[in-house]
Design goal:
This protein is an alpha/beta fold. 43% of the residues lie in helices and 16% in strands. It has a domain of 227 residues: 3-Layer(aba) Sandwich (Rossmann fold). Strands 4-5-15-10-11-14 form a six-stranded mixed β-sheet, with helices on both faces. A five-stranded parallel β-sheet has the order 9-6-7-8-16, sandwiched between helices. Strands 2-1-3 form a three-stranded antiparallel β-sheet. The protein is globular and about 60 Å long.
Length: 466
């Protein structure tokens, strides 16, 4: 029997994978998760020698309701756009291993999931003879990766909200230079948290969601997390094979908790992960949570790693579901309290760690620049500022018996100003980004208000002639 999916808040009847993908945010306001997490400890040996594409099929087939004869070409097509034969290669740099996740079309780790999700949406829509209108919020890389995943597709429109002036110029140009008729870029006069709040509000309006067939590519969509689980297995296998280690550690720069949650799922599946090191910038709500048990809102700070300038981490609710004994009513109560007060505390026994698997720390601007400079000077390796946050914090948790794998989430050429500030040289370039310089752009500036976005989306769809 195919895997079924339940809401973190317990108010939705279990649904199949394809329905979960199309639903995005659960109809009760929660997030969807598989009813069970399969234990694959007995398969690790057989999986360890597979190619990335073969491994992706093996991992995904445990969670999807798609026949293998359809899933295999979906996976092959999704990763045919990547520039590295290994898809997510591992590079040894000094005392750490870098898992490079930026070899897709938009040079960011989001491509790993969103190239797959674009093809998955098209597959499901063709089978159901339906159309889809995607509403997305981005703090930088999700927007361009989602746009490149669905641009030009006949059955899909996409509306991407980004905080005006709070993404890097190159990230903005990657989005706004795509002028396909099915792509709409919205520059909102607010923060990413505003964008994310508006998205959740509109998905929570079930009449609007149903009338306009809204779908999500943000990491609230389980398919995003599932695709990211694969590279934890792939990276661990490569490093364990190279070092002879039995366990590994991962350092993950994160703002929305989606990327590290994929690692958490991999660990629950039986991948031998000694620690997941959660790394934040000055927007350190998650670091505080895993160091002190305190999940409380602070002011959003603009940093060199803008994709992590987030306070409300949408995927954190999935972690809470497991932390609170898989009790939907308990999660619902806690999230209501957080919505009302902006603060909750995790239950932690006196003297105990907040979590035995997840440790955390903050890499501020000074640490970010120092890390970029250090790896460049000593090893000739360039990190983007987000990846540098992860390396900075990850190095605090090195262990001789458990090699540290640091996730590199974006190509450094996406953040040339930060690289120049760190190294004193203008050396972060990539031909894909250089080619954007003279392209025309298009976007709409809107106030950070749900009604403004609602009206824009409705008007564009209603006037499309369909």
């Amino acid at each position: 029997m195919s895997m079924r999916y339940v809401s973190t808040r317990g108010g939705v009847e279990p649904v199949g994978f394809s329905d979960a993908v199309m639903m995005g945010l659960a109809r009760d306001g929660g997030l969807l998760l598989p009813e069970t997490i399969p234990d694959v400890a007995g398969r690790l040996g057989a999986w360890s020698t597979l190619s990335y594409q073969e491994l992706a099929v093996e991992v995904m087939r445990l969670f999807v309701d798609i026949p293998d004869e359809d899933l295999e070409p979906l996976v092959r097509t999704s990763y045919a756009t990547f520039r590295a034969p290994e898809i997510t290669p591992v590079v040894g740099v000094g005392d750490i291993h870098i898992l490079e996740l930026f070899h897709g079309p938009t040079l960011a780790f989001k491509d790993v999931a969103l190239q797959f999700l674009g093809n998955l949406f098209e597959y499901i829509l063709e089978g159901r003879d339906q159309d889809l209108n995607i509403l997305a919020a981005t703090s930088g890389d999700t927007g361009s990766a989602a746009i490149y995943g669905v641009r030009g597709r006949e059955r899909i429109r996409i509306f991407v909200m980004h905080p005006k002036g709070r993404v890097s110029p190159l990230q903005e140009r990657q989005m706004t230079s795509v002028t396909d008729a099915n792509v709409h870029n919205l520059a909102l006069e607010g923060t990413f948290d505003d964008c994310q709040s508006i998205m959740k509000n509109l998905f929570g309006d079930l009449n609007f969601k149903d009338r306009y067939a809204l779908g999500s590519v943000n990491s609230i969509n389980w398919a995003r997390v599932l695709a990211q689980v694969v590279y934890y297995f792939y990276g661990a296998f490569r490093v364990m094979d190279a070092t002879g280690a039995d366990r590994v550690r991962f350092a993950v720069p994160t703002g929305n908790f989606g990327d590290i949650f994929a690692g958490y799922v991999a660990a629950r599946m039986g991948l031998p992960i000694g620690q997941l090191v959660l790394a934040t910038n000055e927007n350190n709500i998650l670091a505080r949570c895993f160091c002190e048990g305190d999940y409380s809102l602070g002011e959003v700070h603009a940093t060199l790693s803008p994709s992590m300038d987030i306070q409300v981490a949408s995927n954190f609710e999935r972690y809470l579901y497991y932390r609170l004994g898989e009790s939907g009513p308990t999660v619902r109560t806690l999230m209501s309290a957080f919505a009302a007060t902006g603060s909750v505390r995790l239950p932690v026994s006196e003297g105990a760690a907040v979590d035995d698997l997840i440790v955390a720390g903050m890499g501020d601007t000074e640490a970010t620049l120092a890390t970029i400079r250090d790896l460049h000077e000593k090893h000739g390796y360039l990190l983007d500022p987000h990846s540098a946050v992860g390396v900075s914090v990850g190095r605090r948790f090195l262990n001789d018996d458990e090699p540290m794998i640091c996730l590199a989430t974006a190509h450094p050429a996406k953040f040339p100003a930060a690289i120049k500030q760190a190294t004193g040289e203008d050396i972060a370039r990539h031909e894909v980004l250089d080619a954007l310089a003279d392209l025309p752009t298009q976007s709409e500036v809107l106030p950070a208000e749900s009604d403004a976005v609602r009206d824009f989306v409705a008007t564009r769809i209603d006037n499309s002639g369909e």
